[in-house]
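User: quick one, fold this
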Amino acid sequence: MRSNRDLISFQGRRRRARWALPNQRGASLIELLIVVVLLAIIIPALISGFTAAFVTVKDARMLELAKHIAQMTMEDALASEEVIAGGRDVPGYPGYSCYVETETDFADGSTTVVVTVEYTFLTGRRQHRMVAVLYAR
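Assistant:
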């Protein structure tokens, strides 16, 4: 059982805690200004971080698609008897161009096939190249 002394000291702490916080009804003007300044600093940093992340993801997605187009074109070129060199737009993928180049080395009879896929990203053109060497049998 609690003694009167414990009850008094508990009530005393309670009174002190009440008196520690004056009767305020909201925040002062300076506190609101500090919050606004902090938000003005933090929000642009967050927005630029998200923008950079979206650009990086889009770049990775477009490069992955260029790799896929190069792989399909290379498989078509290697499966055919005659490799047809030249450039073309890729149907179904606007903004992507595909170029196939061949070079034959008559010394060892090998043929080098180079597939280059170009695409536009932001303000510039980017390339992805894939190379295969076919040796004479």
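User: anything notable?
Assistant: DSSP finds two helices and four strands in the chain.
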